[in-house]
Structure formats: structure tokens, C-alpha cells
């Protein structure tokens, strides 16, 4: 199932899950969600991974045919898992963790019935918690993703042509991202969140509210996907915010940059600089032990001092966070909100995106993905932050 | 919430849901899934639609701000729905339908608790059943989608350049689809199904099995999305199967065509023609009242008579269907399998995709999206079916 040099990595990830299971008294987790399957096996398959408090995971595979490796057992349906565990001499769990924030109601019921004696509890938090602090290999993959993202962003000035619509611009950027190696699929947590390869927000469309919990909205071109570019021409005196998601290797970074078309007013320029000022402050604060709520509150202080509260994190509709964990999924733990109890640890990876929406002009601000180190935040998406002219 | 001319359409859709609710004794459905929200309101939003056995739906909206229209009520959380219904003088349902095959376990529990007196049942089938038979407007939207899809496919010969990889080819085709109006997002049912804008399968990669329930596989370029093009050069003597999903207006059609690079062997040519022969047979059979299982079995008869059983619907790994409903989601009801109890009705829309995988050569066959009429199947994706040379 995985290359030999990956095995120690996957056991490291398993151990992180097991530590949290032990702390919560969970005897075993049966993992079914694609993002979690990918985390623990380095590939997506249809099936389940059975993780106990110790020992290696057992991979119950339905599809595809032909997977090989240690502890791979083919089943046609989940009901066979119990008999396979009996054959292996493994005790049935008394307390079983299932991803109750991911599995459908009926799938959760079905998997529960495989273990009729078990008390079923929610393992979503265990898995999100384990994935929140990255391994060194995961950070390296995200750094590589950041290199590809920024290589694509470097081509933005040559993509833009006067008179383009935001959508034409986005389409050319999608092509650049794909040619740079993007797999063409942004993995997002939560089945209410839908997006194509990302978001280009130009001019007043940046203020159009969206149903989704993205930092900024946009009306989209069709009400079946009401987010992002709306197909209008990019006009002089507006900004274009580029928040595209390449996903180059399964571990994503998240980066936003803004360009201006012609000149924009002073307040817009100022807001962009305040965003950068907030990031500089966050980079210093972001050491292990820092409360993410303190980061949120400090960002609010800075933008309020600048007199920009009406525009911070949206204008007509506001987002309730200034950043979020990122990795296999674009939206992971921790989320930087005023009520969060999360505290930074080394090797957490977080995207911080202090953004402003200036009515009729557009969105401004910078988003970087960082890894937490003892010296503060290290930027995985280094790229000029100035609002350059297109 | 919707334009005046859409209102009668949406009430027609509502009525189709209500008829099925009455047949099953369901007093009310609380709809939360994006595809179903889009079906009944012509837009995706975050929130819920409350549908009773009669009367207009009530739209409980969380996000975005600013939606207007009849029966729109803003809530912050689902718990407020009960008190809003009381204010409206609406009786609490005794039997409540929830999408138990779509909602997460925890979301289903939370919504159930809003109606503590209600017996909760699964409304997934009611909604899938209602959506299975399209309205005339839905068929018109899918016909329009088919026109855009085929306009993009017509550009395939000019996209191809000798020495290209399958991925480079796919990237240029994605751009053509997007410039043609694709929203860049293929809506698929089931959170185990992941895909980017579609599948280009060249040469032996067509035989690589995938975890997903697509008709044909491909290894993909990264194990986090193990499906489709794998980045290898397109070689002489192979085929390239193009099964891309534009999604131009929220109602999708599904079309596959195959090109060859240089010459391919006789069996490959024959298999492609047998696929077309199966489609001609299906087009005649496909009148209201026809059992979809009979269609499946007839297709099997034809390909077995041709001596191609080893290659039909996959070789190393086989798909268990020859077609499927299509609409807001790419994979809808009915599914054309030997055990299906479904019977064709006028205005069902189905994609039929008799495909063969010839080892080392590639995949062949044709997929069209059809609407069921009293004279048989009408093709919504008309486009030359011959395997032309690239």
C-alpha cells in the first residue's frame, strides 16, 4: 500500500491519532473519510482503516482492486470487518470512534451495527486534532505546494490583458496552475462548502455575499455555485484579489495576493498596508503557547485603530475568523476566532488572511500559510505582498 | 429569492416532492443538501427548506445575507425553525423527512431534536425520486448544457499536439470548456466521489482501477485523487477517451467520445462499433415502461455475442452498471444495473455509457445523455460518434 520509506511516516501519524484515542479512552477508530484515509495511508481508497490504541492500522479495502501492503484485507462490505477481526484474534472495541461529523446518518448507523456491543463516540475531533499538528514531512509537502502556488502567481502580470473579465482572467490562471502541476481539485472540509479551483474577486463583486464560510464572497456566474468571479469586465480603479487553490501534492497551502488596475484610492491602499501590518504582528506573536483568540483580538485592535472596522473581513457580510488551519483540507483546525480555546503548537500550519472589502473598489489584503516555530511563524508562501499594478 | 417566471417552475418541482411525501405519509421534509436546495429554490444557500404536503416551501436562510422573496425567513441556527413555524401557525410534523443518506450523523441528530415529537424518516429517496423525472425546463437546461459540451468537444482535434501528455491535453480542454461557459465544478452525489473537471483516459492508464464508482478509472497523478489522466505521453496506437464535465448551468449532461492516435487494432475498432450498436438498441428500447434492468441485460447480450465480455465496462476492474440518471448531479437515479427495479418514465434523463477497456490500447465506446420520450430516447448530446484520428 505504501513505499517502504513512507511506512515510518504513516506510523508516526498513526501514533498521533493513538495518543488522542488513549486520552479519550477510545479503544478503536474506524476511519472512512477520504481526507483521513489519505492522512493515514497516503492514498484515497474506498474502504476503512481500523486503528487501535497500539499496533499498526488495518486497511479494509473495497476498491480499487490490486492494492498491496501490510495489513491490507479486502472486503465487499463493512459487515465483514467484524469477522475479519475475529480471524486476526483482535478484541472488539468497547468504545468505538466513528467520524460522526463526516459520515452520513445512515452510514454511521450501518458501521455502528458492525460492532453491536460497542459504545459509539465521535472521532472527528480526535482526527482533526491529530492532523492539526503536522509532521515534518507534511510541512515539507506544504512548502513544496507553496513553491508551486507562488510560481503560478508570478505569472499573473503576463496573464492579464486590458478588457478581460474576471472569469477570463481566472481561466488563464487555472491553466497556469494546472501546467504547474495542480491536480485540479481543492479538497475542502464539510459538504456544505463548494468551490472550483478558487476565487478571483474583482471590484464590487468582492462585496457580494456568499453562502459559504470563505473569508470573502463573490456572486459566481451561476446560482448553483454562488461564489467567486462573476464574469464582469475588470475596470480601471478596482482591485483583483487572487485566492486560488492549486493543490499540487495532496497537502495544500493557501495564498492570497492582490493587484490593482490603474490607481485606487488612498483608503484602499491603506487597508492593504494594514493587512500586511497585521501579518507582521501575527508572525511575531505566533509562537507555541500563543492563544489563537489573542491573535484574532490583536488583529481587530490594529484594524480598528486604523479606522477600518466597517471593511475588515467583509463589508456587507463579514467572516467571523481571520485565519484557519490548512493541510490535506483547505479548512482545518485551529480556526482563528475570538472564542477559540486553541493554543499554537510547533508544526501547526495556519493560513492567516486579514482582508478588507472596500465597496465599489474591491478586496485587499494578503494571505500567507505559515508553520509555527519557536521563533514565530515561518512563511510557506513567500511572494511579494505589495499591491502591484496589472 | 427567484424571478417571477421561475416561481411556477419551482412550484412544479415542489409538487413532485409533495406527491411522493403524501404517498409515504411524510408530513414535512426539511431539506438541507446543496443539490436539493438548488432543485427547489434555483440557488444554493446555507439553510433549510421546509416542505409540507401542500402549500409553498418555506426558506430558512442562514447565509448569504440579503436574499429576498416569498417565504424567506432568516435564522441563525436550525433550532429557531420550530419557533418560526409556531409564529406562522404551522403544525409540527408528526412524521418528518430528513436526508439521512446525505446529512452527517450529528447534523441529522441536531435537526431531529428541533422536532422532538416527530418520527424521523429518510427523505433521500423522496427527493431522488422527485428529481429523477425532469421538468421540461430541466430538460431544456440539460439540452443547453449538451450544446456547450459538444461545442467544446468539437475543438478536441485542434487541441491535440503530437507528443502531448494526457494531462496537457486535458488542461487545454478544461480551458476550452471554461471559455465555453463551464462553471468549473462537477457536482457529484456522494461524498466518497471526488473528481476534477473530468476524465481523460489514454492508453493503458484506462485499465488502472480507481476507488470511485465511475465507469472507467485511471490512476490520476496523485494518490489523493486517484482517478483520470496520469501524465504519460499519448502514444501512437492508443485511444484517448474524453469524459469531461463542463457543468454550464447547474443541470449537467454527460458525454464521452473517443479519438485514436494513429491506427489501432481491429478488436479495438470493433469494440467501439459494438458500443454504438448497443446505444442504437437502447435508443429504441428506451420508451416509458421499459425496465432499466432489461436494458442492462440486452447490452450484456450484445457485447457477449461480440465476444467482448472480458473488456466490457472495464477489464482489471469492472463497473456494475451501463448508465445512470443525470441532472443537477452527475450520478442520479435510475442506475442501469441488472437488479434495478426502476422503470423508465417520460422525461427521465439518463446517460448510457457502454464502454470497453482494451489492455495496452485504451478505452473505447460512446456515452450520450438522453431524455426518455414516447418514441424512445432523444439524444441531448448529439456529436459524431466515430473514432476519428487525432
The percent range for helix content of chain A is: 25-40%
Total discrete domains of chain A: 2
Q: For this structure, what is the CATH class of the largest domain in chain A? A: Alpha Beta
Order of helices and strands of chain A: HEHEEEHEHEHHHHEEEHHEEEEEEEE
CA distance, first residue to last residue of chain A: 47 Å
Which pair of protein chains has the largest interface, and what are the residue counts?
A: A-B, 65 and 64 residues
What is the overall shape of chain A?
elongated
User: What is the name of the CATH superfamily of the largest domain in chain A?
Assistant: Creatinase/methionine aminopeptidase superfamily
* Oligomerization: homodimer
Can you summarize this structure?
Chain A has helices at 4-24, 34-41, 80-87, 105-114, 124-132, 136-153, 156-159, 166-179, 266-285, 292-305; strands at 28-31, 46-52, 58-63, 72-74, 95-98, 119-122, 198-202, 238-244, 257-261, 323-325, 332-335, 349-352, 355-358, 362-365, 368-373, 376-379, 388-389. By secondary structure, the first copy, chain A, is of the alpha+beta class.
3D architecture notes:
- The structure is a homodimer of 390-residue chains.
- Chain A has 390 residues and is an alpha+beta fold.
- Chain A folds into 2 domains: 4-131, Creatinase/prolidase N-terminal domain (Creatine Amidinohydrolase, Chain A, domain 1), CATH 3.40.350.10; 133-389, Creatinase/methionine aminopeptidase superfamily (Creatine Amidinohydrolase, Alpha-Beta Complex), CATH 3.90.230.10.
- Helices cover 32% and strands 19% of the residues of chain A.
- Chain A is built from 10 helices and 17 strands.
- Chain A has helices spanning 4-24, 34-41, 80-87, 105-114, 124-132, 136-153, 156-159, 166-179, 266-285, 292-305; strands spanning 28-31, 46-52, 58-63, 72-74, 95-98, 119-122, 198-202, 238-244, 257-261, 323-325, 332-335, 349-352, 355-358, 362-365, 368-373, 376-379, 388-389.
- In chain A, strands 4-3-2-1-5-6 form a 6-stranded mixed β-sheet, with helices on both faces.
- In chain A, a hairpin with a 3-residue loop joins strand 13 (355-358) and strand 14 (362-365).
- In chain A, helix 9 packs antiparallel against helix 10 (292-305).
- The radius of gyration of chain A is 22 Å and the shape is elongated.
- The model of chain A has no long low-confidence stretch (mean pLDDT 96).
- At the A-B interface, helix 4 and helix 8 of A face helix 4 and helix 8 of B.
Amino acid at each position: 500500500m505504501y513505499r517502504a520509506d513512507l511506512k515510518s511516516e504513516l506510523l508516526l501519524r498513526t501514533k498521533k491519532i493513538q495518543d488522542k484515542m488513549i486520552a479519550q479512552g477510545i479503544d478503536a477508530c474506524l476511519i472512512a473519510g477520504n481526507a483521513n484515509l489519505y492522512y493515514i495511508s497516503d492514498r484515497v481508497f474506498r474502504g476503512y482503516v481500523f486503528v487501535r490504541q497500539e499496533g499498526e492500522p488495518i486497511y479494509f479495502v473495497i476498491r480499487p482492486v490490486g492494492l498491496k501492503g501490510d495489513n491490507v484485507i479486502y472486503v465487499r462490505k463493512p459487515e465483514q470487518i467484524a469477522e475479519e477481526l475475529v480471524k486476526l484474534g483482535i478484541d472488539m472495541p468497547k468504545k468505538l470512534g466513528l467520524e460522526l461529523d463526516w459520515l452520513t446518518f445512515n452510514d454511521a448507523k450501518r458501521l455502528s451495527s458492525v460492532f453491536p456491543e460497542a459504545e459509539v463516540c465521535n472521532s472527528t475531533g480526535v482526527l482533526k486534532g491529530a492532523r492539526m499538528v503536522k509532521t515534518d514531512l507534511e510541512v515539507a509537502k506544504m512548502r513544496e505546494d507553496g513553491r508551486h502556488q507562488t510560481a503560478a502567481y508570478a505569472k499573473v502580470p503576463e496573464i492579464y490583458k486590458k478588457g478581460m473579465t474576471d472569469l477570463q482572467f481566472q481561466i488563464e490562471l487555472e491553466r497556469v496552475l494546472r501546467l504547474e502541476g495542480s491536480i485540479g481539485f481543492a479538497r475542502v472540509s464539510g459538504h456544505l462548502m463548494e468551490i472550483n479551483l478558487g476565487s478571483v474577486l474583482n471590484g464590487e463583486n468582492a462585496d457580494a455575499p456568499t453562502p459559504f464560510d470563505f473569508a470573502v464572497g463573490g456572486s459566481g456566474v451561476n446560482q448553483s455555485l454562488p461564489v467567486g468571479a462573476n464574469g464582469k469586465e475588470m475596470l480601471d480603479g478596482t482591485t483583483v484579489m487572487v485566492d486560488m487553490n492549486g493543490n499540487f501534492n495532496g497537502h495544500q497551502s493557501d495564498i492570497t495576493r492582490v493587484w490593482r488596475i490603474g490607481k485606487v484610492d488612498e483608503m484602499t491602499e491603506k487597508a492593504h498596508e494594514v493587512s500586511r501590518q497585521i501579518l507582521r504582528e501575527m508572525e511575531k506573536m505566533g509562537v507555541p503557547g500563543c492563544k489563537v483568540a489573542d491573535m484574532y483580538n490583536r488583529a481587530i485592535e490594529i484594524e480598528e485603530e486604523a479606522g477600518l472596522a466597517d471593511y475588515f473581513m467583509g463589508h456587507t457580510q463579514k467572516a467571523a475568523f481571520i485565519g484557519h488551519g490548512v493541510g490535506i483540507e483547505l479548512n482545518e483546525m485551529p480556526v482563528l476566532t475570538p472564542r477559540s480555546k486553541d493554543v499554537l503548537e510547533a508544526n501547526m500550519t495556519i493560513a492567516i488572511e486579514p482582508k478588507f472589502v472596500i465597496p465599489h473598489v474591491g478586496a485587499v489584503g494578503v494571505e500567507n500559510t505559515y508553520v509555527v516555530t519557536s521563533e514565530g511563524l515561518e512563511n510557506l508562501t513567500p511572494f511579494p505582498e505589495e499591491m502591484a499594478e496589472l
